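User: Hi! I have a protein structure encoded as tokens and I'd like to know what sequence might fold into it. I'm fairly new to this, so please keep things simple.
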């Protein structure tokens, strides 16, 4: 039996393919027109030539002798005879690592009618893409234009739409996902198995189950809006199914409860070094930032967003703008209580900017990490642990749960409980020598240096803004 395309009006089985014997097909070929299916005598094209087949958009007229009575494999239409096997090209990136580009070309009448390439970081991924592309072409399922682009392109569109409304952690996760070789596939290939394999790759790269869970959770929003916003029918149920399986396989999971509280001697060592460094006029007052975190329970990003207009001195409150919350990243402005020590630190800062602490949170985070690394006796201490310290300290001082929530900004006791790790009743910071140090106003030399640095930052920001506007025109 020979398997060839079936044209208009011809008997067929097996979903549009003619499975009759070659002899029967040969007789039919000799008496029918390929295009209009009429007998040769009544075909409008004349006696000895035949139309090209309508299937496959072919334009070349071919005769019966083009077919061979020897193979049981499907006969390829003439439009596919010009298919050239994919070529794999290796190039070195600027960082010295190799990249592999697979290219598939399709020719018709000696001319290239289609060319598509894909670059991957691994040769096997490039070969896999090339094999998949060629197979789909031979099977007749290949599409010249991907109906929805790649999954990576969709993630990028989603990221750019929400970039100004969500936190930087989510944006960074989406950037990582769109840059992975695994997401450079068509959106029609995204299913629960694909999502599970994607999570496996994230886990294999050294991420813990909680971190992988964060990456996958950030994709939930995309699956919610993909069909209505981008007309791409991603199934939300596929994401739910994948996450259920990932939880059972322990590939994703919740973060372990962290109960690290700094020891008083550790804080004394850090404050001593930070204060010594603050003697340089261009250094940020990291000792004040550390003390303010202990006194207020504020996150580092929240500290650097506090404005002078947001401070209520009479009621000892401050407005925390865009407080971190799982369901509301922007516009979640919350008034919180300030302790006496926190208010004194605010009053010690110079009013040279709209913000009380006009510093870049990422720079402060790096400075704190490097400060901790100077001491061999201080292990596994994060800046966020100071928030744990502040909340636990408030409970040890006898504050009620309601009052502690008014300071920390938590909406429920269940979320506040994570930060609670009591050791003993009383304020272990009572009489702490550094409270007096951090409440001292900045010297005029440091104030002048800060003004100069802020002015330079504004000039740089304005220049970058102008450059961006020109590039978008």
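Assistant: Happy to help. Inverse folding works backwards from shape to sequence: for each of the 473 positions I chose a residue that suits the local structure. Here it is:
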């Amino acid at each position: 039996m020979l398997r060839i395309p079936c044209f208009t009006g011809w008997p067929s089985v097996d979903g549009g393919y003619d499975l009759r014997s070659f002899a029967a097909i040969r007789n039919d070929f000799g008496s029918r027109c390929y295009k209009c299916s009429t007998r040769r005598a009544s075909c409008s094209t004349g006696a000895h030539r035949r139309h090209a087949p309508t299937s496959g958009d072919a334009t070349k007229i071919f005769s019966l002798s083009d077919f061979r009575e020897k193979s049981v494999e499907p006969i390829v239409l003439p439009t596919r005879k010009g298919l050239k096997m994919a070529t794999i090209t290796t190039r070195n990136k600027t960082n010295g690592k190799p990249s592999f580009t697979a290219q598939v070309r399709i020719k018709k009448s000696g001319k290239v009618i289609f060319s598509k390439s894909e670059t991957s970081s691994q040769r096997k991924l490039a070969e896999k893409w090339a094999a998949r592309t060629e197979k789909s072409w031979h099977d007749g399922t290949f599409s010249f234009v991907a109906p929805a682009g790649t999954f990576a392109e969709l993630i990028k569109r989603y990221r750019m739409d929400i970039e100004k409304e969500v936190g930087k952690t989510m944006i960074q996760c989406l950037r990582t996902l769109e840059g992975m070789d695994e997401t450079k596939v068509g959106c029609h290939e995204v299913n629960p198995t694909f999502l599970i394999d994607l999570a496996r790759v994230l886990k294999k790269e050294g991420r813990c189950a909680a971190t992988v869970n964060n990456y996958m959770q950030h994709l939930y929003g995309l699956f919610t809006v993909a069909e209505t916003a981008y007309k791409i029918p991603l199934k939300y149920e596929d994401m739910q199914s994948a996450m259920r399986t990932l939880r059972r396989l322990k590939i994703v999971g919740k973060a372990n409860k962290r109960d690290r509280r700094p020891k008083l001697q550790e804080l004394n060592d850090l404050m001593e070094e930070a204060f010594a460094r603050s003697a340089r006029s261009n250094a940020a007052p990291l000792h004040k930032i550390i003390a303010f975190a202990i006194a207020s329970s504020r996150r580092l990003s929240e500290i650097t967003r506090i404005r002078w207009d947001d401070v209520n001195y009479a009621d000892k409150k401050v407005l925390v703008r865009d407080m971190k919350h799982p369901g509301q990243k922007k516009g979640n402005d919350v008034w919180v209580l300030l302790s006496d020590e926190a208010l004194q630190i605010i009053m010690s800062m110079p009013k040279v900017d709209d913000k009380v602490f006009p510093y870049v949170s990422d720079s402060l985070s790096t400075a704190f990490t490097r400060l901790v690394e100077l001491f061999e006796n201080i292990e596994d201490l994060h800046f966020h642990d100071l928030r744990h310290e502040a909340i636990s300290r408030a409970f040890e001082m006898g504050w009620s749960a309601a009052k502690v929530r008014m300071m920390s900004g938590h909406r429920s006791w269940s979320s506040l409980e994570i930060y609670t790790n009591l050791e003993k009743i009383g304020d272990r910071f009572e009489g702490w020598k550094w409270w007096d140090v951090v409440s001292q106003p900045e010297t005029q030399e440091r104030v002048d240096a800060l003004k100069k640095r802020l002015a330079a930052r504004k000039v740089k920001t304005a220049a970058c803004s102008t450059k961006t506007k020109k590039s978008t025109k």
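A useful reference point when you look it over: Residues 444-472 form the longest helix (29 residues). Feel free to ask if any position seems puzzling.
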